[in-house]
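stage 2 :: seqdesign
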């Protein structure tokens, strides 16, 4: 064997040794390594546990900024229509997809009216008394969907709920909130005849047109 062949053999042996070492490192020994810190599972409450989902669609939401006289994006995420199992109230809730921050949170009332946005059949607009920022505020929303079908489904579902509530109002059915408010006003009425008249008018107002009553939706935790 010539001296010129020795470096080639040495290089080949080195490569074989390196390959064997790498294979040994990649080999699964089956040993389990216990974590240094054990994390406990924590139950997260969304506030939707007592509600049934009537609608669940992906969308992008905007609100109209009166001061700037322009539309401002509220977020991209999922809009839901949730019906409470006990009170039967329906509310609209939208959360951002990544942060789960609430973009919209308001009750669907008999007066809620959703209209197609001019020039865009994938979008629609409506007015609502919203509670997403922790206080009741009158808002003008615009929602945009990926398809015309989803926009139509959203609009028709809102109309169906609003018509059902309007029918209950016409039939003279009172909500639990209206009854409770009436009873409370009657208990507080300990003044003279003028106070009695004012209390009766205040108690009768919601019964006359329940659709205009501003109700505070249940807050998400």
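stage 2 :: out
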């Amino acid at each position: 064997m010539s001296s010129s062949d020795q470096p080639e053999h040495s290089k080949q042996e080195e490569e074989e040794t390196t390959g064997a070492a790498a294979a040994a490192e990649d080999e699964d020994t089956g040993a389990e390594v216990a974590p240094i810190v054990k994390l406990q599972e924590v139950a997260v409450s969304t506030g939707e546990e007592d509600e049934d989902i009537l609608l669940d669609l992906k969308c992008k939401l905007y609100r109209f900024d009166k001061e700037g006289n322009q539309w401002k994006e509220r977020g991209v995420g999922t809009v839901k229509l949730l019906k409470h199992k006990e009170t039967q109230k329906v509310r609209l809730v939208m959360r951002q997809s990544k942060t789960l921050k609430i973009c919209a949170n308001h009750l669907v009332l008999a007066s809620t009216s959703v209209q197609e946005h001019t020039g865009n059949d994938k979008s629609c607009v409506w007015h609502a008394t919203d509670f997403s920022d922790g206080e009741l505020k009158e808002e003008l929303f615009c929602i945009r969907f990926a398809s015309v079908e989803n926009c139509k489904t959203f609009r028709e579902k809102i109309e169906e709920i609003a018509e059902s509530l309007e029918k209950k109002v016409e039939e003279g059915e009172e909500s639990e909130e209206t009854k409770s408010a009436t009873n409370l006003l009657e208990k507080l009425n300990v003044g003279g005849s003028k106070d009695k008249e004012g209390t009766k008018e205040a108690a009768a107002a919601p019964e006359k047109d329940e659709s205009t009553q501003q109700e505070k939706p249940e807050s998400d935790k």
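stage 3 :: structure notes
- The longest helix spans residues 148-170.
- The beta strands are 51-65, 70-84, 90-96, 102-107, 115-116, 123-130, 137-144.
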